[in-house]
Structures are given as structure tokens and as C-alpha cells.
């Protein structure tokens, strides 16, 4: 339970960090809450750890022109306490309640969590639900990848050696947006067996901009567009939780390679999240 | 040990320290083996158990999930710094004893440190806030009810009946 | 002042050091020149070792020594103390020799200068294996033609068979109105104390004398076992159990690291330290529980259970550890619990499988037995349309029927003769505490609303306070302070406080004047240890007996000092006074000083010093009992089981400290709950465990625990001079039966029969619901 040897640098500029990360076997260190236990168990063996903690300007949270931008060193605790995040992306706040425990949230970063691409993790669902875009920077350039394209499989993402996430951008939710996050796990603070992230704008009793993404069914977040459409098309007086659950059941039931348990419990969880949103609206 | 080392300056329980440490040294091992502060216990080294919880710049952190080099420039507080200098127990320690909130004591320092951190920010935490604290701590002995009662008493709440 | 201390919730004398970071666990021990050990473990479940290459590891900077099985070929295996003559001695070696039989079996150790480098070097030891067929399934392992034999020399994987025979079960089955049969499957999980195991072996004592610091529950037995394996006298060994971070039975075993660290330390002439990693813990420390019970019950027309037969298999893993037969033995000897069942036959096989060795964990075999018996009672009640409480009452031994020789016996502990207790009274009291009738009504309402709610009840009788004996040594020095040396080795139970209460009450002194020392074989010359709910009752009795002798001796010395006849000297508030002359007396300190060897021997005494030793020789097992009632609800949509409410009435004889006993009950319930709802050590088809630490072995958190209401009864046992029985394990023993019973009750109306202990994870419960067309996914 001790890490294997590695070299370590803590650069003070982003350019220096990217130059170091360009070396073979280099690995960035942000919050370390997934990386360090894996170092200790010797499941991860970088040659060089590049600690980003001294690089300036990676900790900002800002809203600009309809976009919430979260820097790569922003921790879950900082995001959860941020009025900008609360106003712009209530779903992020809802999901963070389920992430780890207070001490983990004090160190763990949103960007690191996405890069780790744990299929039981909450933030990937949120990023896909809200259509987040990640900026990936390397020594000689930058690219942008939508969260849905970034997450490739269990513990697999589109980041390439030498790249780091320099921002996560979320579109600011419209007025009337409400969010809910539900999950089932073997106990409190254990990896989710199934999860649902939902955000809906309810204006004059009408649903707009529904976003329903589920976890546990596939190794990557699964967006249930059929549910979103059904909710938006529903007439007045429709039992929306019931509708959501039944459409989700059809949508998930028709999927090949769907995880058995999650497929069974996701539909009622979809119903619950919708009910919870409506109750709060 | 790996050959790469760094000099770090960490303030621990109010006292400045300066050490040269291997870069792979975990903060928990730095506290225990370099500084001799063995009150911080390592129950898993993987994050879930919370026994190794300390305060870093006032925030609860897992000392097994940080490298010592990451603590460079930080203020760390451990269980050894909780009681008064003359040995008088802190009221959190008194409450844990009064409510029989510990048995083997291995997980206890981590829970006490998390409680120090919580009460400093939120002197009267709600039941939900106390439950949130306890999400991060495993105890194999007590069955938790007495810990919850100690936390409730510290929050000025009735020990039972707030559920 | 100290009168009436026993029976009160004195706050613990252990707590200050534990709360301030001043405790000393084994990992906190630092010795000059100390080296670090890592263990190279088998990655195969069953294989021949073709070759072990150690040259790269030896060449790694800082490495001092590598030992393999060849280096310790001359050492005997680790003892199993509950084998009986017909058993196959399938014993664990210090390091594997020629063959490995489970993933995690120690193959080699590496000793290096620091704790990081030693892990680097351990990775460089290369082991070449030739795989053998693996046997994991309990039924297959015990069959006539198993897929593999772990020890071909025995020609069977069955290490031994415990048999019980009471009355004439065959005749009872012939006459039975109803016969019920069920096979119960109990899964594998583990004690998982918060502190893993660890050792520091120091060979630098006088003349090479060894000190072994080890996280154990029984240091004196470790000393004996270590002397036996190494072939050296016990006097050359000191074993210290420092502060120990929980054990629950897992540290009531003698482990290979306790030997090989000493071998390495002696070879190098320097202290050697090994601290088990959490990942390592789940392969290197004993597992628990896994059994299959096939049980038949004969019932007459009135619902009286006239006979039970049992055939059980215990998956003991790859070797018989220190207390390996005990789970099979206890579960078979105690299956009938508080019920009369006059005819009984059991055949319980301890079976070798390619898994980590399995032995005792809180409750040993009791939880499994209670689960089977109580599920069977519920099934009989349901099928015969008899109220389940009524059925229990009809079959339950009454107070007037005790003592009752049950006709069974437990290996090591002896004959099962229930001593005292009021089992029906205990059941009545817990039903009252739980508000049973009200709960039944609300359950019916909830079911009407489509909710899945269950009530469970478990009544049990439990072996506690077993022998053979325990030691107590009470010494008063010239300061007037009292030191108690106890052979118990507590590790969280608060036994030091309990003992201090007993001694302070006997001597009528403030509890602050009592120091209790334990866990060091150089300080406490003789002892047995803390396990099997024995510490408080047995060590407490020994300490109190010694204190009583001290008091008698003090009175004699005081009578000389006061120039009065002993009959005229009274013991008042910790001092001796002449009866009727208050103020004319001598203090404990004065008496102790008079008794030192610097003075003449006081008149009437045959030895110096205010200092007495007592052994409490246990005449027989004291049987505690309890009744648990629990309410659960199952989320139809997710399969999540939530324990809503818990009531327990516990009778462990005379109680020393109710706060401590209640704490034991709470903790025990949490362990039962965890084992049933979330904890499991599963294996893949090749024998690799699917658990790698606390990130995938889930202990319960505060959020899963219900409110617990605890009531007490006190039925003193005549087997203990102060009437005390043991209280350490009952919480777990009852919880396993009660919670499973509640889940079974919840699911019964849906036509789902529960015949096992889960674990009842959300997916497992969902699978049960869906198989019956319940649950959303169906």
C-alpha cells in the first residue's frame, strides 16, 4: 500500500506543466482522490507526476455569456459552495451531494473526476446531461470535446498523453430550471449501482429543455432522449413521473448490452427524479 | 525509497516544520513516521475509512490520499493538537467519552478531526450536516448510534428524537 | 464512594489515551534499527510452485533478506487447537512449500530498510507456478469425487466431522405429523477490524530474547504457539498486544507473519516490522461464516418440534487455522437455541477449499445456527398457520426447566448445559419494547398500501464466558494505588474499566486509584485472552477474587497495626477501621507499606506484600440469551433493504457496566447488519477473490443503522462467583437471525422464500423480486 517510485514536478506556469506532461510516462496530479489510492495499490505507475497545484488560474469559476466555466483545479466542495454554480447549473449541485464524502469533496476535482471516467461516478452523468464541453490542452495546441464524446468506456476517456483539461464549460440553465439526482448504491458513500441525472425547465406547467441521463446501464452515461421528448411533448395534466418512468422502461428495455440491475431500477428512478423536480417547482 | 526528494515546509499543530522527504511519501506516513504523530491512523490507505482524516488549511482531508509534497506550505492539524496544551480534553473529546462513542479507538481520531472541522465552521450543525460528516467515517465497533449522540450533544440538539 | 460501582455506567478509563492520539497500536511502535517486511503472496488458488526467483529482489537497494519456504522447511506448521483425534491435520505452513492452496498464501518475505523499498522489492520476487484444478464450491469439495484434493495424502477434503446425537430422532420423524426440510446457504464475509494486523519482532532482548509486538487478542497463546513452532522455551519470548484496533475473532488466530517476522529478525539481529495492507487483509486474515446447512424438522400436530437433524458444511478454506473447527462445532451444538426439541442429530463437516482460511468471527457458529433455526420456526409457523410467537413459546424451554443438559458438546468449551435464563420472559419483554402488536397492525396497513415491510424475531441462547480459566493479580503498592494485572487482552471492549469497577468496589476505593494492565506476557505472567465473550465475566471474576483476597490480607495486616483482633476490624471506604471507633484506622497505603519486605512479616501472614493472585477456573459454560425484534422495508423499485427499527432485550447475567454492554450490543448489531446487507467476499471461477479493500468491501455506515432500543434482564449464573456471563457477541448473533427473518417475512406474501443470508444487496433482492414477477423490471 505504498506508491511505486516516480519523479515529481510542481511547475508554476501552465506552459511548464504542459512541457513536462509531454514527457513519456507523465501524469497530471490534480486532487488525487482517485489517483493516489491507485498509486498506493500500484495499479497506476506513472514515471513522472506533474502536480498542477501551483499553476495559477486553474481554480476559477466564472459565468460569461450563458456559459459556466469551471477550472480544472476546482474541487467538489468549492463548486458546491459556489453561488455561480448554484444559479447556473443546479444539477451539478444535486450530483455533488452524492460524490464521496466531505473530505474527498474537499480535495477531489470535477475535471479529475471526468478524466477518471469511473462508470459509477456521478459527474459524468451531469456533464453529458448538460452538454458540457471540455477544453483539452497540450503543449502544442488545444481542442474541445463534448462530454458525450469524451467518455469512452469504463475508466476510458478521450484524453491523450500530454493533455490536461483546462476547463469544463456548462451552458447556463434557463429560468425555471430544476434538477434532481438519484442513485442506488450498496450503502451510503459507495459506488452507484444505478443513477439518474435529471434537469427540467418548467414554465407555466410546461416542460422545456428536459435532460435525462442515466448511469449503470452502460459503462458510459446514457442519455434518454425519448424520455426528454415525451416530457416536452406531454399535454397538460399528464402524470409526468409516470410517463417518464414508462418511456424510460421502453427505452432501456430495448437496449442490447444493458446491465440487468440498472435497467430494472432506472425507470422508477427516472420517475422519482421527475417527481422530485415537480415537487420543488 | 525512490530517490527523488523535495524539501517541504508544513505547519503542524501550529509548529513550523521543515523536512526533506521522498516525493512518493504519503502525508499520513509523513505525519506518523517523520514527525512521530502516530495518532493519525491508517485504516485502509484507499480513502473510504476516514481514520486518517486531518485538517489541511482548516478543511478535512484524507492524509492517506495526499502526498507529503502536496502539503508543502499548508497548515495541518492532527489529533495531537486537539486537547489543550495542559492536556485538558477538548469538549469534543469529552462528549465522545461521555456518550461512549468509541470502543477500540482506531477510527476515533479521524472522526474527532472531522468534528473539529465541522464545528469550527458550523457551531450548531443540523442532523443532516452531522449525517454528512458521518458519511465519510467507518467504525467497526460502536454501531454508530453513540457517535451520533455525541455529535448531537455537541450541536446542542437532543440526543434522540431528532430523526 | 465505591460501593455500588458494579452495575453503573462508569465512563471508560481507556478513553483518554484513545481520544487524544496517545494510544499505541502496533504500527505506532518504532524501534532503533527497525527493518520492514513485505510478504510475497500466491496469485494462484491452487498450484505447484515450480520455482521462486529471488535474485532481483535481493539486488534491490536496501534489501537485507529474502526468505522462502525452503528456508523454514524445518519449522512445523501453525497449530489448530480445536482439532480432535479423528481430524485430518490440514495445517498451514509458515511459508508455502512446493504448493499453494489459496490466493494470498505467503510464499516469501522480503526484508528491507524502509517500508516503501520493501514493497518495490517484493514485486521483484518471481514465482513460477504450475496450476492445479481448483475447488471452491462447498458441495463439490465435500463430495465423494471432488474436482481437486487440497491435501492428496488425506484422500478427502473433509478435515473433520462434528457429530451430535440426542434422543431418538429417527423415531420422532417416523411419528411426525409434519416434516420440514430446508437448505440454508450462508455466504463468506469477514470481521474486518479497522486496524489491520501487524507485528514488530524485536530480537535484541537480553541474550537474544524475542519481543513480538502483535495485534492479537491472545498474547499468551501466541507466546505458546510461537515457542512451539520455533522450538524455543516460552521464557525466551515476550509477546505484547499493544492497543489493538478491534479483533472480533480475526485476531484470535495465530498467523504466519507472527513466526516469519521473528525468524527474519533473529537472522538479521534487528527488529522487523510488518503492517498488513487493507488489500492484503482480505486475503491474509481469516474469513468467516460460509456454511451450508441442510436441516430437517419433525413437528407434531400441535406445532411442537419433536426432532431436528442437521448436515452442515463449513468452507474452511485452504487450511485449518487456530480455531477452525469451532464454527462447525458451535453451529451444530447450539442449533436448537432456546427450543426444547428433545431429539437431535447433527453431522457437521469442516471442508477444505481453495480459499483464504476461515475461522471464528463474532458469534463464531451462533449466527448461522440462529439464522437457520429462526427461519425454520417462521416457516413452520407460516405453513401450519400458527402465530410465529406462539409457536416459539410452545417450544421454548421455560425458566423452570433450567438447568438443562442439552446433550450436545462444543469442541474446546465442553458440554452444553443451559444454566440460567428466562427465555419466554425475554421474548415477552422484547415484544413489549418493540410494540409488537402495534407493529403487526402497521405492517398490515403498509402491505395494504403495496409496501414491502417485514418483521423479524430471533431468540437465541449463546455460549459465553468459556474457560479454561483466567488470571487476576491485584497489587497495592506503598502509594496506596492499586494495579490489576489481567490475563484478558481487551481491544475495544472496555474490559479494563469493567475490571477496575469490580476491584474498586471490592476495595471501596475510587476507580481512579486502579490501574489495569494487560496484553504483555512479561507484565502478566499467565493469561488466556479475550474472545468468546469471556473477558469481562471471567477476567473480571478473577480480578475480583484477587481483590477480595487482598482485602482479607489487608484486614489482617491492619489488625496488627491497629492492635485489634481481625474480627474487630472493618473495611470502610478503602481503609481499615476498628469497629465502633471511627477515625481510628489505617489507609490502604499504610497497610501496603507495612507489608513490604523492608519490614518484618506481619503476624499471621505467610507472604510479604499486599499482593494476591487468583485464577478463576471456569466450571462450565455460562449461556447468555437474548431476543431481537427488527422491522425492515424493501424498496420495490430498487431492491434496497432498509432496517427501520430495532429492539433487543439481552440477558448476560449480572451486568458490570450497562453502557458498555449496550455498546457491545450496538456494535454487534451493526456487524450483523453489514454481513447481511452488503458484505461479501466472492471469488471468481479461478479462485481469485473479488474484494480488494474498503472500496469494494462495504462496511455499514451510520446512515444504514436503525435506532436501537435495548433492554436488559439479569439472570445470574451460578458458574461465576459474581453471576456474570458474557456480552460481546450477542448483538451479532441475534441480528443475523432477526434481520434475515424480517426480510423473509417481508417477501413471504410475494411467494418468495428466503433460504440463506444474502447478502441482500439491492441487485440480489431485485433478482428475488423479479423472479416472482414483483419489482418494476419484471
From TrEMBL, chain A:
Keywords: FAD, Flavoprotein, Oxidoreductase. PROSITE patterns: FAD_PCMH. Residues 1-175 form the FAD-binding PCMH-type domain. GO terms for molecular function: FAD binding; oxidoreductase activity. The keyword rRNA processing does not apply. Pfam families: CO_deh_flav_C, FAD_binding_5. InterPro entries: CO_DH_flav_C, CO_DH_flav_C_dom_sf, Diverse_Substr_Oxidored, FAD-bd_PCMH, FAD-bd_PCMH-like_sf, FAD-bd_PCMH_sub1, FAD-bd_PCMH_sub2, Mopterin_DH_FAD-bd. Transmembrane segments: none annotated. SUPFAM superfamilies: CO dehydrogenase flavoprotein C-terminal domain-like (SSF55447), FAD-binding/transporter-associated domain-like (SSF56176). The keyword Flavoprotein applies. This is Molybdopterin dehydrogenase.
TrEMBL record, chain C:
It comes from the Bacteria. Residues 20-133 form the Aldehyde oxidase/xanthine dehydrogenase a/b hammerhead domain. InterPro entries: Ald_Oxase/Xan_DH_a/b, Ald_Oxase/Xan_DH_a/b_sf, Ald_Oxase/xanthine_DH-like, AldOxase/xan_DH_MoCoBD1, AldOxase/xan_DH_MoCoBD2, AldOxase/xan_DH_Mopterin-bd_sf. Its cofactor is Mo-molybdopterin cytosine dinucleotide. This is Xanthine dehydrogenase. Pfam families: Ald_Xan_dh_C, MoCoBD_1, MoCoBD_2. The lineage of its organism: Bacteria, Pseudomonadati, Pseudomonadota, Alphaproteobacteria, Rhodospirillales. GO terms for molecular function: iron ion binding; oxidoreductase activity. It comes from Skermanella stibiiresistens SB22. Keywords: Molybdenum, Oxidoreductase. Signal peptide: none annotated.
Amino acid at each position: 500500500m505504498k506508491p511505486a517510485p516516480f519523479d515529481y514536478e510542481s511547475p508554476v506556469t501552465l506552459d511548464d506543466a504542459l512541457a513536462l506532461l509531454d514527457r513519456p510516462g507523465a501524469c497530471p496530479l490534480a486532487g488525487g482522490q482517485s489517483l493516489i489510492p491507485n498509486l498506493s495499490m500500484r495499479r497506476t505507475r506513472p514515471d513522472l507526476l506533474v502536480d498542477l497545484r501551483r499553476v495559477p488560474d486553474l481554480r476559477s469559476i466564472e459565468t460569461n455569456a450563458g456559459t459556466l466555466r469551471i477550472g480544472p483545479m476546482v474541487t467538489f466542495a468549492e463548486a458546491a459552495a459556489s453561488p455561480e454554480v448554484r444559479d447556473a447549473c443546479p444539477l451539478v449541485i444535486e450530483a455533488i451531494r452524492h460524490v464521496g464524502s466531505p473530505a474527498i469533496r474537499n480535495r477531489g476535482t470535477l475535471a479529475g473526476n471526468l478524466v477518471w471516467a469511473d462508470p459509477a461516478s456521478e459527474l459524468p452523468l451531469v456533464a453529458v446531461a448538460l452538454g458540457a464541453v471540455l477544453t483539452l490542452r497540450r503543449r502544442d495546441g488545444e481542442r474541445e470535446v463534448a462530454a458525450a464524446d469524451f467518455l469512452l468506456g469504463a475508466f476510458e476517456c478521450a484524453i491523450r498523453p500530454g493533455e490536461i483539461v483546462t476547463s469544463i464549460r456548462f451552458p447556463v440553465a434557463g429560468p425555471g430550471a430544476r434538477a434532481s439526482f438519484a442513485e442506488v448504491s450498496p450503502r451510503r458513500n459507495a459506488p452507484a449501482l444505478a443513477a439518474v441525472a435529471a434537469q427540467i425547465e418548467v414554465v407555466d406547467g410546461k416542460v422545456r429543455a428536459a435532460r435525462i441521463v442515466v448511469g449503470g446501464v452502460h459503462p458510459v452515461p446514457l442519455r434518454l432522449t425519448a424520455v426528454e421528448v415525451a416530457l416536452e411533448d406531454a399535454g397538460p395534466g399528464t402524470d409526468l413521473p409516470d410517463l417518464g418512468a414508462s418511456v424510460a422502461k421502453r427505452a432501456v428495455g430495448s437496449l442490447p448490452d444493458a446491465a440487468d440491475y440498472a435497467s430494472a431500477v432506472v425507470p422508477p428512478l427516472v420517475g422519482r427524479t421527475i417527481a422530485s423536480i415537480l415537487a420543488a417547482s | 525509497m525512490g530517490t527523488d526528494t523535495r524539501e517541504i515546509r508544513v505547519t503542524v499543530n501550529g509548529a513550523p516544520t521543515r523536512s526533506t522527504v521522498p516525493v512518493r511519501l504519503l502525508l499520513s506516513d509523513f505525519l506518523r513516521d517523520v514527525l512521530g504523530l502516530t495518532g493519525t491512523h491508517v485504516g485502509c490507505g484507499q480513502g473510504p475509512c476516514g481514520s486518517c482524516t486531518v485538517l489541511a488549511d482548516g478543511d478535512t482531508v484524507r492524509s492517506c490520499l495526499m502526498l507529503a509534497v502536496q502539503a508543502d506550505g499548508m497548515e495541518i492539524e492532527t489529533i495531537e493538537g486537539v486537547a489543550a496544551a495542559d492536556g485538558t480534553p477538548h469538549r469534543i473529546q469529552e462528549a465522545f467519552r461521555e456518550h461512549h462513542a468509541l470502543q477500540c479507538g482506531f477510527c476515533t481520531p479521524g472522526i474527532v478531526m472531522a468534528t473539529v472541522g465541522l464545528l469550527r465552521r458550523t457551531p450548531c450543525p443540523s442532523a443532516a450536516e452531522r449525517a454528512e460528516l458521518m458519511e465519510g467515517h467507518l467504525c467497526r465497533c460502536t454501531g454508530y448510534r453513540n457517535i451520533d449522540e455525541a455529535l448531537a450533544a455537541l450541536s446542542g440538539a437532543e440526543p434522540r428524537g431528532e430523526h | 464512594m465505591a460501593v455500588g460501582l458494579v452495575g453503573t455506567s462508569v465512563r471508560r478509563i481507556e478513553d483518554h489515551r484513545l481520544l487524544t492520539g496517545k494510544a499505541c497500536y502496533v504500527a505506532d511502535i518504532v524501534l532503533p534499527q527497525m527493518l520492514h517486511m513485505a510478504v510475497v503472496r500466491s496469485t494462484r488458488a491452487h498450484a505447484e510452485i515450480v520455482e521462486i526467483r529471488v535474485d532481483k529482489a535481493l539486488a534491490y537497494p536496501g534489501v537485507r533478506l529474502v526468505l522462502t519456504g525452503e528456508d523454514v522447511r524445518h519449522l512445523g506448521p501453525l497449530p489448530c487447537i480445536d482439532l480432535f483425534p479423528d481430524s485430518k491435520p490440514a495445517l498451514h505452513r509458515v511459508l508455502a512449500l512446493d504448493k499453494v492452496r489459496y490466493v494470498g498464501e505467503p510464499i516469501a518475505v522480503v526484508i528491507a530498510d524502509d517500508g516503501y523499498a520493501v514493497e518495490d522489492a517484493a514485486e521483484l520476487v518471481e514465482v513460477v507456478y504450475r496450476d492445479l484444478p481448483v475447488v471452491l464450491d462447498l458441495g463439490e469439495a465435500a463430495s465423494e469425487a471432488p474436482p481437486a484434493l487440497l491435501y492428496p495424502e488425506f484422500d478427502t477434503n473433509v478435515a473433520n466431522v462434528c457429530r451430535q446425537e440426542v434422543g431418538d430422532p429417527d423415531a420422532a420423524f417416523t411419528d411426525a405429523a409434519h416434516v420440514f426440510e430446508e437448505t440454508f446457504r450462508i455466504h463468506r464475509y469477514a470481521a474486518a477490524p479497522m486496524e489491520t494486523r501487524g507485528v514488530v519482532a524485536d530480537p535484541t532482548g537480553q541474550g537474544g530474547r524475542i519481543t513480538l509486538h502483535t495485534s492479537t487478542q491472545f498474547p499468551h497463546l501466541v507466546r505458546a504457539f510461537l515457542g512451539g513452532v520455533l522450538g524455543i522455551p516460552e521464557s525466551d519470548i515476550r509477546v505484547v498486544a499493544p492497543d489493538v484496533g478491534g479483533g472480533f475473532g480475526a485476531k484470535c488466530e495465530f498467523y504466519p507473519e507472527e513466526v516469519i517476522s521473528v525468524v527474519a529478525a533473529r537472522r538479521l539481529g534487528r527488529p522487523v516490522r510488518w503492517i498488513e495492507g487493507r488489500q492484503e487483509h482480505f486475503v491474509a486474515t481469516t474469513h468467516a461464516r460460509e456454511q451450508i446447512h441442510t436441516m430437517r424438522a419433525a413437528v407434531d400436530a400441535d406445532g411442537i418440534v419433536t426432532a431436528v437433524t442437521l448436515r452442515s458444511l463449513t468452507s474452511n478454506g485452504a487450511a485449518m487455522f487456530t480455531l477452525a473447527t469451532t464454527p462447525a462445532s458451535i453451529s451444530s451444538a447450539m442449533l436448537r437455541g432456546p427450543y426444547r426439541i428433545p431429539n437431535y442429530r447433527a453431522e457437521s463437516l469442516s471442508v477444505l477449499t481453495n480459499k483464504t482460511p476461515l475461522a471464528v468471527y463474532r458469534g463464531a457458529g451462533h449466527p448461522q445456527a440462529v439464522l437457520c433455526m429462526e427461519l425454520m420456526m417462521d416457516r413452520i409457523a407460516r405453513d401450519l398457520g400458527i402465530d410465529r410467537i406462539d409457536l416459539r413459546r410452545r417450544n421454548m424451554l421455560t425458566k423452570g426447566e433450567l438447568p438443562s443438559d442439552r446433550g450436545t458438546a462444543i469442541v474446546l468449551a465442553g458440554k452444553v448445559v443451559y444454566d440460567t435464563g428466562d427465555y419466554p420472559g425475554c421474548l415477552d419483554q422484547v415484544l413489549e419494547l418493540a410494540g409488537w402488536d402495534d407493529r403487526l397492525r402497521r405492517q398490515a396497513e403498509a402491505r395494504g398500501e403495496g409496501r414491502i415491510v417485514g418483521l423479524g424475531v430471533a431468540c437465541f441462547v449463546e455460549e459465553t464466558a468459556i474457560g479454561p480459566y483466567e488470571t487476576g493479580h491485584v497489587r497495592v503498592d506503598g502509594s496506596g494505588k492499586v494495579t490489576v494485572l489481567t490475563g484478558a487482552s481487551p481491544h475495544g471492549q472496555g474490559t479494563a474499566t469493567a475490571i477496575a469497577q469490580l476491584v474498586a468496589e471490592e476495595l471501596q476505593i475510587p476507580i481512579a486509584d486502579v490501574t489495569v494492565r494487560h496484553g504483555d506476557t512479561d507484565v502478566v505472567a499467565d493469561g488466556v485472552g479475550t474472545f468468546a465473550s469471556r473477558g469481562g465475566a471471567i477476567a473480571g471474576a478473577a480480578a475480583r477474587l484477587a481483590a477480595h483476597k487482598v482485602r482479607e490480607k489487608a484486614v489482617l495486616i491492619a489488625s496488627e497495626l491497629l492492635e485489634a483482633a481481625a474480627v474487630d476490624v472493618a473495611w470502610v471506604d478503602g481503609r481499615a477501621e476498628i469497629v465502633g471507633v471511627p477515625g481510628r484506622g489505617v489507609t490502604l497505603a499504610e497497610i501496603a507499606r507495612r507489608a513490604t519486605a523492608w519490614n518484618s512479616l506481619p503476624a499471621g501472614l505467610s507472604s510479604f506484600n499486599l499482593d494476591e493472585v487468583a485464577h478463576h477456573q471456569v466450571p462450565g459454560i455460562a449461556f447468555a440469551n437474548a431476543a431481537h425484534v427488527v422491522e425492515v422495508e424493501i424498496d420495490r423499485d430498487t431492491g434496497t433493504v432498509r432496517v427501520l427499527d430495532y429492539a433487543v432485550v439481552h440477558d448476560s447475567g449480572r451486568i458490570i457496566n450497562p453502557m458498555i454492554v449496550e455498546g457491545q450490543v450496538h456494535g454487534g448489531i451493526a456487524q450483523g447488519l453489514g454481513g447481511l446487507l452488503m458484505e461479501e467476499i466472492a471469488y471468481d471461477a479461478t479462485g481469485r477473490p473479488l474484494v480488494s479493500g474498503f472500496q469494494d468491501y462495504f462496511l455499514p455506515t451510520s446512515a444504514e443503522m436503525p435506532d436501537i432500543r435495548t433492554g436488559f434482564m439479569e439472570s445470574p449464573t451460578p458458574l461465576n462467583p459474581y453471576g456474570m456471563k458474557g456480552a460481546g457477541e450477542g448483538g451479532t448473533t441475534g441480528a443475523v437471525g432477526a434481520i434475515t427473518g424480517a426480510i423473509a417475512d417481508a417477501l413471504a406474501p410475494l411467494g418468495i422464500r428466503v433460504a440463506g443470508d444474502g447478502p441482500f444487496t439491492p441487485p440480489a433482492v431485485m433478482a428475488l423480486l423479479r423472479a416472482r414477477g414483483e419489482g418494476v423490471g419484471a
